[in-house]
Amino acid sequence: MGEHGKLSRITNRFMTPVSSPALPVVAAPGQLSAADIRRGLSLIGEIEPKKFYLFGSPISQSRSPALHNALFAQSGLPHEYGLFETTVAKDIEKIIRAPNFGGGSVTIPLKLDVMELLDHVDPAAKTIGAVNTIVPTQTADGKTILTGYNTDWQGMTIALQFAGAEGNNGVLKEAAMVIGGGGTARAAIYALHKMGYSPIYLVGRNTSKLQTLADSFDASCNIEVLSDTEQVSKLSSERHPVVAIGTIPGDSPIDPAMRETLCSLFEAGNNPRDIPGPGDKAKVLLEMAYKPRVTSLMQLAENSGWKTVPGLEALVGQGVHQFKHWTDITPLHDFSRKAVLGDEA
């Protein structure tokens, strides 16, 4: 008990009572928080400092270091998260096999190529076809096993849910839309399917590329490619999309034909039969592009009465899941959001 009992609380390995900074007073003299105990274990060498990285390019403006270093500090862990910029997956092989490697985030253009360097890939990441998280684990004989996960889809799900898009669990399904046909679009399709949306429409410049993307998923995803306004006009009111994820570059003009199709889809639910009542939910667009703050796609959606969510909100969610994979600690979403968004939170 008391000050003299703190060391035994730090070194005890079973059923240690802990306090919380959120409590007005500690429950007993000398009681420590879980973070305090980890800091103590770090000081006496019981927790080895590890190196964590973001791999990819360009990454100099990423908010991931701000997020994860804040979470390490809050959790009382001695680890550091930094940047390793490269476009070649082989460049990171020695780093991820080093004894002090704690985990990694992976962004473009390495999300596919990095899979060849790993021992295992999570089923969700296999379906999506991309890895954004590397987790090292130790076997009983001291061998390091590297597993790849994809938390992008989980970040999208969390961002949409916080915006009021709850998904579908009942018989009546609501439609959703993915804008773009690249790697991020695959994670978006997976997220919307897991949330129960059906059908899922694909809209983009290259119709044949979109069809190839649609065909690569199981038929249960119910993916449809929409290429023009005529197809949109034939959709019944119950098949108008109520949620969308944008995966196209935010700093480039939208293709004119694609823009026309998108305007039709955003406006599709605005006919008299679909005027929202007092209890109806707003339609939601999650924009995965971080910059500019308001993209052309967001402006199109807002002009049609849609609620828009910036991509940094998804970064928060995927980062929370990454941190849990690495540390088995579930951080608070509000704290994580402030670390990413800063004054905008």
Write the layout of secondary structure elements.
Layout: H1 6-11, H2 34-43, E1 51-56, H3 64-75, E2 80-85, H4 93-96, E3 101-106, E4 120-121, H5 123-128, E5 133-138, E6 144-149, H6 152-162, E7 175-179, H7 183-194, E8 200-203, H8 207-215, E9 223-225, H9 229-233, E10 241-246, H10 256-267, E11 284-287, H11 296-303, E12 307-309, H12 312-327, H13 333-341
Parallel strand pairs: 1-2, 1-3, 4-6, 7-8, 7-10, 8-9, 10-11, 11-12
Antiparallel strand pairs: 3-5, 5-6
Helix pairs in contact: 3-12, 3-13, 6-7, 6-12, 12-13
Explain how this protein is built.
InterPro entries: Aldolase_TIM, Aminoacid_DH-like_N_sf, DHquinase_I, NAD(P)-bd_dom_sf, Shikimate_DH-bd_N, Shikimate_DH_AroM-type, Shikimate_DH_fam. Residues 54-134 form the Shikimate dehydrogenase substrate binding N-terminal domain. It holds the Pfam family DHquinase_I. GO terms for molecular function: 3-dehydroquinate dehydratase activity; shikimate 3-dehydrogenase (NADP+) activity. This is AROM pentafunctional protein, ARO1. The chain is an alpha/beta fold and 345 residues long. The protein has three domains: 3-43, no CATH class; 51-150, Rossmann fold, CATH 3.40.50; 154-314, 3-Layer(aba) Sandwich (Rossmann fold), CATH 3.40.50.720. The protein is built from 13 helices and twelve strands. It has helices at 6-11, 34-43, 64-75, 93-96, 123-128, 152-162, 183-194, 207-215, 229-233, 256-267, 296-303, 312-327, 333-341, and strands spanning 51-56, 80-85, 101-106, 120-121, 133-138, 144-149, 175-179, 200-203, 223-225, 241-246, 284-287, 307-309. The strands form two sheets. A six-stranded mixed sheet has the order 2-1-3-5-6-4. Strands 9-8-7-10-11-12 form a six-stranded parallel sheet, with helices on both faces. β10, α10 and β11 form a beta-alpha-beta unit. α3 crosses α13 (333-341). The protein is globular. The two termini are 40 Å apart. The model has no long low-confidence stretch (mean pLDDT 90).
